[in-house]
Amino acid sequence: MKKVASILRYTILTLGALIMILPFFWMLSTSLKTQPETVQIPPVWIPKQLQWGNYVEAFKAAPFARYFVNSVIVTGVTTIGQLFTSILAAFAFSKLRFWGKNILFLIFLGTMMIPGEMLIIPNFVTLSNMHLVNTYGALILPWLASFFTVFTLRQTFNSVSDQTYFAAKIDGASDWRFLWHILVPMSKSTITAVTVLQVIGSWNAFMWPLIVTNDENMRTLPVGLQAFTTDAGTNFALLMAASTFVIIPMVVVYIFLQKYIIAGISNSGLKG
């Protein structure tokens, strides 16, 4: 029975892996097809002749170098900013004692149930009144805080005993020193996990950058992909070629840091 269960388990895992890999294979395959092959029925899984020129043509179709710089700036600043504010807030909710802490935490926790789409118009109006549309400020400011990250880090900080905190205080350590010299190093796995998740989310963001930018020089990579969709139709070969070099940086990041993501989510208490 154990052998049967093991075979069944690996069969299910293999099928799941194949299902997850299939879209990536289709993207790579389509990026190397001719335009007629992309719409051919039945579908062409492997192109007859690899069209490597699609990548060169796709890169020249729009200012992707500028889009790349914008994506790097927005991703870097939002990740660092969000991590900084979240660590401070998580520490306050975990170790500090102040009136109304639990009530305030529950209120913030309730905001996680609000669909992000409901905040698009208020955020846009606010930034428009601040004259920040078409600037890095519009792309960055709304994402400098995330209560999901605060909640995740708070769960990890709670795993560090209060005795450790009080012992550090007795030894003369300030809250600031305890946080950055003791608590943060002890929570490295979770911090790395939320950092990677934020990097991936920010890099792949599409809706918000599309709304707050109409200047081509301020757009990010995901928004730039719409250059291949016009009133005449979509050039799927070039679109998939551009999509390939857009996601490569995130795939590399995930491959090298996946163990930290798994360890961090497990340590934070969010595992199923």
From TrEMBL:
Keywords: Cell membrane, Membrane, Transmembrane, Transmembrane helix, Transport. Residues 68-257 form the ABC transmembrane type-1 domain. InterPro entries: MetI-like, MetI-like_sf. The keyword Oxidoreductase does not apply. CDD domains: TM_PBP2. It is a multi-pass membrane protein. GO terms for cellular component: plasma membrane. The chain crosses the membrane at residues 7-28, 67-91, 103-121, 133-153, 232-257. It comes from the Bacteria. It is found in: Cell membrane. GO terms for biological process: transmembrane transport. Belongs to the binding-protein-dependent transport system permease family. This is ABC-type maltose transport system, permease component. It comes from Schleiferilactobacillus perolens DSM 12744.
